[in-house]
Amino acid sequence: MNDVDEILTNEYNDNFFASADLYSKILKEKGILVFSEFITKKVLKEMVNEANSVKPNAFKSSSEYNVYVQPTDLTYPINSARNRIMKTTKKCIPNDLISDESFLMKIYNSSKIKKFFCSLLGVSNLYPYSDDLSSVNINYYEPGDSLGWHFDNSDFTITLLIKNCTKGGIYQYFTDIRFKKNGSENHEYVEDILDNKITPNVQLAKEGDLMIFKGNKSLHRVTDVIEGERILVTFNYNNQKGVPLSEQSRKTFFGRIA
Question: Is residue 80 pLDDT above 80, yes or no?
Fold first, then answer.
């Protein structure tokens, strides 16, 4: 038996993992891939139970930033797309509070799944963060919590939705809109988005769905949770070995750096 056969639904068999080239083309064209019902209902239930059991130790964070997650640049107007402030609130469990025997860690460490991710993303290897906090995280969004508009610092994001809220918490995005054809930042287009002049794409997700998203060039957010709770696991990898998440980011998301 393979290291994840007990975790994944029947659709995600050897034929699926042999089709990385096909999915890589879709990811390149659309900037997003969703693998529906990636894990079995039994495993999903155990993941939710685990998330509930460790939640009392979650750190409640509230962060403010511009969509580029960069310092304010006063060569631009303070209310420009470059400097306008977004906000994210959530609770988060760092990697060192997740058991090594967790199904989450089995997925993250699976050689079969990592090889598939490498093929999708066109990289030779994927490595965990070198700090103990940042490789796998459980994120909790309760009523009033949201993830503001932003571009990711990393080239890709991999998430697993294990519990969905009953109202709100909608994933919205614009694919590959960050730069103009000449390579300069497309601040004007981003400003129209922030002013609600352009309707975003919406990706509806179900519990158990795995999503891969190229967020460095694609603007995205999760709207306010209105009812219920949204629990999202992030699987965080690096293309290079020995890279920690920045101390500032660890302090923001986990309330500590180690």
Answer: yes
